[in-house]
């Protein structure tokens, strides 16, 4: 059941489900944008043992995505259907603090990149995919009721080279696919997983 990679032992079942999720996205959207993010909890969080956090995050992100499309339609802008597919894993650091790694899959015609996740010189954020992701996590944590809740955007991390685009009919498709799967295999590593509490460490979209 375990394979070895640069990330240490991998869970083969999880690796297969990651690959299946990517393939499903490519079958529906021949040009897919893949985005890696990390979600962390604030200090002394009451949601340390909350198993519904990711569900709430994804529901908020999908709701915002739908609202974004309706807004573009009202402005007579061209829009594209976009089913959000995902893979998430729960991990723990050396101090036992929980965090999540995710890969999100989008129709590239709708979202070709996440956009900036940093405020401008006036402290304002652009309404883009990165903003919707940060909003979704803060809302999942019920922190959006605080007056200065945008301070918690720091709990969402966009790693270096966090997004990639894959064209099923591109000339470099095979090489690009292998490169992306190698990066996504990080989510299948066994290191830093904890199975002792009986809660799920891995999940992915079904359709």
Structural class: alpha+beta
Shape: globular
Order of helices and strands: EEHEHEEHEEHE
State the end-to-end CA separation. 24 Å
**Amount of beta strand:** 15-25%
Domains, number: 1
The biggest sheet, with number of strands, parallel, antiparallel or mixed sense and barrel status, is:
6 strands, antiparallel
Spatial extent as radius of gyration: 17 Å
Count every beta strand, where a strand is a DSSP E run of 2 or more residues: 8
Which range best describes the helical content: under 10%, 10-25%, 25-40%, 40-55%, 55-70% or over 70%? 25-40%
Mean pLDDT reading: 92
Q: What's the total helix number?
A: 4
Stretches where pLDDT is under 50 for at least 5 consecutive residues are none
């Amino acid at each position: 059941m375990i394979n070895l990679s640069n990330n240490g032992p991998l869970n083969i079942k999880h690796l297969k489900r990651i690959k299946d999720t990517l393939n499903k996205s490519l079958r529906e959207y021949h040009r897919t944008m893949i985005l890696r993010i990390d979600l962390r909890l604030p200090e002394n969080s009451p949601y340390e043992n909350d198993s519904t956090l990711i569900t709430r995050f994804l529901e908020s992100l999908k709701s915002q995505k739908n609202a974004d499309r309706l807004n573009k339609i009202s402005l007579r802008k061209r829009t594209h259907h976009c089913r959000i597919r995902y893979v998430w894993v729960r991990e723990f650091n050396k101090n036992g603090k929980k965090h999540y790694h995710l890969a999100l899959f989008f129709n590239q015609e709708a979202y070709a990149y996440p956009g900036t996740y940093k405020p401008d010189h006036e402290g304002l954020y652009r309404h883009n995919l990165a903003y919707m992701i940060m909003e979704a996590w803060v809302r999942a944590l019920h922190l959006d009721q605080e007056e200065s809740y945008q301070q918690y955007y720091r709990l969402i991390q966009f790693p270096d080279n966090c997004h990639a685009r894959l064209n099923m009919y591109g000339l470099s498709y095979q090489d690009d696919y292998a490169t992306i799967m190698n990066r996504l295999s990080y989510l299948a590593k066994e290191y830093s997983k904890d199975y002792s509490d009986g809660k799920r460490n891995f999940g992915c979209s079904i359709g």
